[in-house]
């Protein structure tokens, strides 16, 4: 492995419930058009959050539940649990399956953490979302279709990187993840123009690489 190699994630399990029980409808506060749900687990939470946002752009679905598990995939409760669970809801199975399929494509082939060192033990996520769907728009408190820099790293690297990203581009903090998150990382969502968000991602990446290359620098 080399620095900046992608660390690909995997979908671990999926299920579609074609006609969800009324009790589940009430628990997840589904609307009258959401009779079907799709459930997904994967071994990387932030990649999955980007993926389910993409699902809302590709299919007639909404994200009705998404949550990271504590401590990360290495400490999951079972072999199919991973690091995150997400639930999509839509009018019928075709919509939900299309959403799950798009999410899987993003998880396994598009968005990815990268290695900041030679053995892959220090990983970070600096991902440009060119235009948000309904999920990340809601999570970030921004309008649908805005650009976003989705920045995540281990605690110190994340704070150093967020500062570098904010200084490097005309962006603002939409959501801040103070360390430690459920998975012991930190970071946030930055918003601005697509070009500014791209520059913020580059600055965050370089900051994380600087820490990885010289951890003790007073």
UniProtKB/TrEMBL annotation:
Start and end residues of each BMC circularly permuted domain: 1-111, 112-215
Keyword Cell division: no
Gene Ontology terms, MF aspect: structural molecule activity
Subcellular location as annotated: Bacterial microcompartment
One Pfam entry name: BMC
Superkingdom per UniProt: Bacteria
Official protein name in the record: Ethanolamine utilization protein EutL
Originating organism: Oleispira antarctica RB-8
Organism classification: Bacteria, Pseudomonadati, Pseudomonadota, Gammaproteobacteria, Oceanospirillales
The encoding gene: eutL
């Amino acid at each position: 492995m080399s620095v900046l190699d992608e660390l690909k994630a995997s979908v671990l399990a999926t299920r579609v419930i074609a006609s969800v029980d009324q009790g589940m409808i009430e628990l997840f506060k589904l609307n009258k058009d959401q009779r079907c749900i799709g459930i997904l687990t994967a071994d990387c939470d932030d990649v999955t959050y980007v993926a389910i946002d993409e699902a809302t752009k590709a299919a007639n679905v909404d994200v009705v539940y998404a949550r990271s598990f504590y401590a990360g995939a290495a400490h999951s409760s079972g072999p199919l649990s991973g690091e995150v669970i997400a639930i999509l809801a839509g009018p019928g199975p075709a919509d939900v399956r299309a959403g799950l399929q798009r999410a899987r494509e993003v998880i396994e082939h598009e968005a990815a953490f990268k290695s900041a060192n030679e053995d892959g033990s220090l990983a970070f996520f600096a991902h440009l979302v060119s235009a948000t769907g309904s999920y990340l728009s809601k999570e970030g408190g921004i309008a649908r279709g805005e650009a976003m820099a989705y920045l995540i790293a281990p605690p110190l690297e994340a704070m150093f990187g967020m500062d570098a990203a904010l200084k490097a581009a005309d962006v603002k903090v939409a959501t801040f993840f103070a360390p430690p998150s459920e998975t012991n990382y930190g970071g946030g969502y930055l918003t601005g123009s697509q070009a500014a968000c791209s520059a913020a991602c580059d600055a965050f990446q370089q900051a994380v690489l600087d820490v990885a290359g010289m951890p003790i620098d007073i």
